Amino acid sequence: MIDLTSLAVTALAFFVVAVSPGPANISNAAVAMTYGRKTSLRYGVGLSCGLVFWGLVAASGMGAVLQSSLYVLMVLKVLGGLYLLWLAWQSGRSALQSDAARVSVPAKGKWFWRGLILNLSNPKSVIAWMAALSVGLGPDDGLLSVAVATLICIVAGFLNNFLYSMLFSISGMMAAYRRFRRRIDGVVAGLFAVAGFGLIRSAFTR
Q1: pLDDT at 69
Q2: Which residue ranges of the chain lie beneath pLDDT 70?
Q3: Arithmetic mean of pLDDT over the chain
Q4: Tell me: the pLDDT tens digits for 161-187?
Q5: Taking the model in full, what pTM does it have?
């Protein structure tokens, strides 16, 4: 039986990771501001498809974990929690930097393929996927739960890139981001820290 609460927690955890400022999101924002909404949407679809690939890789690994050992899942949760805490540290350090974020705009090209290649070239996405799936899934969940959770995260990934394309194609959004970057990074750091500690704690509770 699928636990809807667990699925919601997984989706929220993945969306927090996906929406946080990073190379893919910042480049998508830059494309939207420079080349317009349609171009950014094509670029975002490429980014999302790259995420799908790593999501399927992570889901196959998670299915094997759930079928093998409770202790393997515990270790995975701890590692995922440490990864989220590392992201919190990175975001917190960025929040303390006073210089505005520099945004490099990709050169013109085949936008879908540029987005796809960018995320395919980032195998750390597997760690983010495994961390997000670990948040909501437990040893009693079956392969169906893994499949549904993965599908929900895929939808969240597409939604994230769609929102970046839509919002940053509005005039002045990049300037607003630069202005509030430190506050945004601070909030993101807090969210990552809460999720990281929560995931580590869940590894030792049933």
Answers
A1: 62
A2: 1-3, 63-70, 72-73, 98-109, 123-124, 136, 138-141, 174, 206
A3: 79
A4: 999 999 988 877 767 777 777 787 788
A5: 0.73
DSSP string, the chain: ---HHHHHHHHHHHHHHHHS--HHHHHHHHHHHHH-HHHHHHHHHHHHHHHHHHHHHHHHHHHHHHHH-HHHHHHHHHHHHHHHHHHHHHHHHHHH--SPPP-PPPPSS-HHHHHHHHHHT-THHHHHHHHHHHHH--TT--HHHHHHHHHHHHHHHHHHHHHHHHHHTSTTHHHHHHHHHHHHHHHHHHHHHHHHHHHHHHHT--
What does the alpha-carbon distance between residue 131 and residue 199 come to, in Å, rounded to a whole number?
8
Of 181, 166, 17, 172, the C-alpha closest to 84 is: 17
| 150 CB-contact burial (10 Å; exposed 0-12 / middle 13-18 / buried 19+) | buried
Distance CA 23, CA 20 (A): 10
